[in-house]
What does this fold into?
Amino acid sequence: MQTLLRTPLYGRHLALGARMVPFVGWEMPVQYEGVLAEHRAVRADCGVFDVSHMGEFEVEGPRAAEFLQSVLSNDLDRVEPGAAQYTLLTNEEGGIVDDLIAYRLEAGRYLLIVNASNRDIDFRWLKDRELPGSDVRDISDDFALLAVQGPQSLSRLALDDAPAFTFAEGEIDGIECMVNRTGYTGEQGVELLVPAEDGAALWDAVVARGATPCGLGARDTLRLEVCFALHGNDIGPETDAISAGLGWVCALDKDFTGANELRRVKEQGPESRLAAFVMDEPGIPRQGMPIEGGGAVTSGTHSPMLDRGIGMGYVPASRAEPGTEVTIDLRGRPRRAHVVKKPIYEREEDG
It folds into this structure.
């Protein structure tokens, strides 16, 4: 029987009464007070998530930039020190080995934050393709990572605003950390990277400042409302970036693994597309449920903000346009839905 890994914040989760569940080899909190309350806290104020199970790789050397340009889909040459970029690790068929964020720390030195489920896969993939003059190191165990998300996140942490996908060294109540203007909820927020031994103290400081502890349940409903793809559900090695709607992170004017196949798919047009939909009848769509006319649900849940079922799934390209009616087979019960423009939920601007 596999022994589950635990983050540096495990004791804090138990003390708060979190319901712990196995997740990609880790024992993680799925909820504290409840998914609905945690979801709404992030949309209205501020929540904090333990995402220390994510993987961190450092890539450095005189050919580090050349190496990463050859394996990542986006154009790292656009990224200055102090900035970050959402990108894909792709295979020869244009499939998505992982989606990740690359941070340019300084010339010849980069940080990659990858999905927890793909940490070992990604590391082997990169090491197998490493160029002389570049070195990839797995530094995941050295750090804790906290995601503080919500419209009041910066004010509660007493942080100045900064452009999305930038980062800087900072501190929260005397605890030094890397403050990254990134997140997975569609809200303003930061992800705080801190040495593992300081993780619990940083968690305490953030909670003391009024952030609501949130688990994996709310993390999933929040990301789905704004149509952020989840690797292993919506994207994977068998799905290409163009069909997944991620062509915008593929710099097809440069050469990288799978670029030729992605150029072909873009030129010919994908056979299917990842569409977002909202249920018109009662029911909650779940992964794997068939979509009549071809396709299947890849992610589904009940939207706390819309109070109805929502989801994403691959459908024939001709049926992916917003407004198209689709029928989801909810365990033998056909239920009507319609395709919507992404994101499914968008905050209404004040005034």
In short: The chain has three domains: 10-53+142-225, 55-138, 271-340. The mean pLDDT is 97.
